[in-house]
Amino acid sequence: MSFNKFELLNYLEDFLTDNRKEGFLRVLKNRTKHFTIAMEDVYQLHNTSAVMRSCEVFGVQELNVIEQKFGKRIDSEIAMGAQKWVDVNRFNTIQSCIDAKRAEGYQIIATTPHNDSCLLHEFDISKRSAIFFGTEKNGLSEEVMNQADGFIKIPMVGYTESLNISVSAAIIIQDITNRLRQSNINWQLTEDEILEKRLDWTRKSIKDIDFIERKFYETI
After folding, report:
1. Close Cβ partners of 40 (under 8 Å, ≥ 6 residues apart)
2. Nearest to 39 by CA among 24, 29, 49, 25
3. CA-based, 20 to 30 A from 209: which of 33, 69, 132, 169?
4. Cα separations in angstroms, 40 against 102, 110, 155, 220
């Protein structure tokens, strides 16, 4: 006997409180895939985890991690649970990440203090964009810079010419998502995407989920 995802969701949601279910709907209303964040070979683990936390706080659903040189794991103390709510896509090479994001309809945007960079407040938020961040010491690779469709820089008025990557990411993500929500752009998740995340988050919220799902399948 067949079933649809709504039936499974309705069954599993009986194991959640009303507050939990309402919380999922409230948060998902503000989630977006209009922007996605990509991190290139960030060596310091806490920066990857902190950027994930910024994605979660400001409603960016996907984080792309390129592991061409350094393996990654998520620092749960710094991510503060964000790894449960943000989708992490892992790539072995820079090119595979660029190709995947282009195939999904994103333009490639490099964050850099480059002279031709667009100031953050002038950045056109109307296009779906994959925002790339580079390593702590060297910034983005030439591979990303040469293939970028555009550049962003944060205006600075002091002597220091750069910010920590996690700070830069937080500033940029907050700015572009805030402007996005004040716009008429269709930035929200689709109904299918919301259903998928409700199922995902519900599963992650239930103890003994494998046992409970087996019980559901036995009833159909």
Report:
1. 66, 68, 94, 132, 133, 134, 135, 140, 141, 144
2. 49
3. 33
4. 16, 11, 22, 45
Going 79 to 45 to 169 to 131, the CA torsion angle's sign is: negative
> Which amino acid type is present at position 181?
R
CB 52 within 8 Å of CB 79? yes
Decide if pLDDT at 125 tops 90.
yes
Output the DSSP codes for 56-97. HHHTB-EEEEE-SSS-----HHHHTTGGGTSEEEEESSHHHH
Q: Give dist(CA 13, CA 27) in Å, integer.
A: 16
The owner of tokens 């977006």 is 32
Give, rounded to a whole angstrom, the gap between the first and last alpha carbons of the chain.
Answer: 6
Q: What is the mean pLDDT of residues 52-76?
A: 80
- Whether the pLDDT of residue 159 is over 80: the answer is no
Looking at this protein, which amino acid is placed at residue 195?
L
Question: What are 139's strand-pairing partners?
Answer: 135
How many angstroms from the chain centroid is the CA of residue 137?
23
Give the CA count within 13 Å in the CB-facing half-sphere of 106: 24
Whether the predicted pLDDT of 141 surpasses 60: yes
